[in-house]
Structure formats: C-alpha cells, structure tokens
Write the structure tokens for this entry.
Amino acid sequence: MSEAQQPSARKAQFRAATYNIRYDADADKQSGNGWNVRKGPLSDVIRNHQFDVVGTQEGDATQLADLKGLLPGFDYVSHPYGGKGDLHNCATFYRTAMFEVLDSGVFWFSETPDEPSIGWDATDRRICNWTKFKVKETSREFYFFNVHFYWQLEVARRESGPLLVEKIKEIAGKVPAICVGDFNSTVETYQIKTIKTLLHDVYDRSETPRQGVENTNLGGGVFQGEPKNRIDYIFLTSHFEVKDYQVISDVYNENRYPSDHLPVTSSLAF
C-alpha cells in the first residue's frame, strides 16, 4: 500500500466503544469518587484509547456537557431516561471530523415502546437511543443503537431482548448496525441469546486475541477491586470486520476506576 493510500485506509476503520459512566451520585462524593474527581480520568480513557464513537449510559446533562468540554472534536446525541426526574441519559459521543449524523431517535423498553413509558415489572424508564451516521471519508452509512436495560427485576430484562431485536429490524432494515450498552444481563440469559439471533457479539468475532479482563461491572458505586460479571457489550451485524476486542482497566488515584463499569471497545471496518 502506498503512503497516499494509508490515511484513507485508516479512516475507513473506526473504534467503537460502550461505557457506563455512572451518574453523579451524592454517595460517590462522600466516598471520594465524585464526578468532579472522575471526569478527567474518564475523559482520558476515551482520548488515550482513541474511541471514535462511544455509547455512554447514565450521565446527566451536566456530566455530558463536562465530557464534551473535555473531548475536543466530539459532539453527542442523547436522550434522557430513568432516575429521579429522568436525570440519566443514553448519550453517544462521536468524532465530528469522522461522522455526520443523518438521523436519530429513541424507543422505550416497554409494552408501548414508541411513547415514554415504564415496561413490565421495572420501576423506572429504560431506553434505546439510536443514531444513523455517515462515515465522511467513505459515505458508508450505519446505525448505532445505545441501550441501557433495566437491572433489578427479571421480566423487564427478559422482554427487552426481543423488543430490541424487533426495533433494530424495523429501524435499520438491511443497513449495517452496531448496538452497544449496559445490558445488565450475562451471556447465558434469554435476552442476550435472543439478541445474538440477529447480531454478533464482538467478544466472539475478534480477529485477534481478546485483551483485558473478562468482566465489566463492579456494582453500583464501587470503583476499586475486581469486576463481577460481563454485562456491557458491543453487538453488530455481519457487515463489519472485528479487528480487536478490549476491556479497558485504566486506573488513577490509588487504583480507582473512573466509573463502576469498565469500557468495552473494538476496532471495526466495513
């Protein structure tokens, strides 16, 4: 490959990620893990590992504005859900030099997905915020679905899987699609098995050996120690080559993680 070809070849490839950034909890301030302490190291993870498009979960409007300020060259698409007064957001950050937003929307994980609603046995709203992107360099288009499943009760988690599959088929059709998020579900559950009838788990598809630890979740408000289970995923259609799979365990300030989840990332090419 000539030098003239190399830049466009690099730009045809991009790094996708998912990262539950943990909401700005009062308890975290008391434990020394408040957002004002975490936001710098968390943005460092996104920059240092060269994420190009990352689906985040839980952040409130102030947190998202802070992150945008700490991530030059990024913008985001978001929608609120959950928490007191719909404080939490599914927000997808993307490099503006690399991607153009063509469309975006939201659906709720419930029996009435097209209107704001709490589903099944859940106690708060949960959503999928989706964005249709164009890769500026190649004009290739793809959908990016960013989700946060309910965590506590079984019916809402179980029913969210089939609904997600149905809505991805409806919205994306045959267009390439990536779906990331905090699914609050381990790989053997019905909901994850259902998602895998439509989409591939990049964990299974990486062309190179997986990097990092297996598990991604430390539990609510825990910022040190060993993650307990793998509940954060990147799924995608067969349009993509999966160059790698990484779980990032960067720490700061006495081995603290910037969030109570570890980010998952993968380099993808059409």
About this structure: Residues 6-269 form a domain with the Deoxyribonuclease I; Chain A fold (CATH 3.60.10.10).
